[in-house]
Fold this protein.
Amino acid sequence: MSTGDQRQARSGSRLKRGVLLALAIGATLYSVIPLWFALVSSVRPEGDIFRYLSPLSIKSIWPTTLTGSSFRTLMDTGFASPVVNSVIVALFTIVIGLILCSAAAFALGVLQFRGQKFLFGLTLVGFLMPFDALAIPLSQVLSGAGFQNTYDGLILPAVGNGLAIFALRQFFRNIPRELLEAAQMDGYGWWRILFRIYLPLSKPALISAALILFVFQWHAFLWPLLIAPDPAIQVAPVAIAQFSQETFVDFGAIFAGTVITAAIPLCLLLYAQKYFVASIAGTGVK
């Protein structure tokens, strides 16, 4: 390759890197600006939240006056209790959901039986179907069964997550089958193979599935609103909605509650992102 061709190749490579960098910066800003606006609005006086949006200026995203009144309003209204309820519900969802989803993924990805592909297809269809379309009739069924205003009613519909099952199944299928055959020769049963071989090798996939279960449960609004309207068992998203009334909307408290409820999954995702990436990468390598 001549010197001119090398320079042209290097120039094209720099251009590609520059375009990719610009796209990455744009995507980051697109994701961060709404979070930043919520944070800024949570520490502004009520009258300043929307004052600087038209026309846009630096004051639109940078507060000139800071106040903690919105967070004090949250604490005065007992917002800590719904946050604790959300944590309890999310933790039990993760524990129970990982047990059920890993067992289902093992059966659909490792075992061999008639109708396996059909059941896996049903799992995908169930995941692709919007849960909101089923929420009202399902809430009536569970309410009639005595699950109204209970933690069980909040947790049960979330433990069987189709996306978590799919991620675990794909990861299980990439574990060498020779390990399974060797375990069977040693007399291992299916449950022992799952808990002694597959799960210890699937830490990234388990963490990824746990994040999926957590995020879906943590941000759920319609289902908790239907199945647990009692204030004593309200979760955080439903409690935030209570600050929007027919005659008055406390935007400061809404933004403050949003910041608190977004901070917890954000910290978890930042901590576990390497495991999530490893899980996704592992599903495509055989």
Remarks:
- The chain is about 70% helix and 0% strand.
- The CA atoms of residues 132 and 181 lie 43 Å apart.
- Residues 3-42 form the longest helix (40 residues).
- The chain has a mean pLDDT of 85.
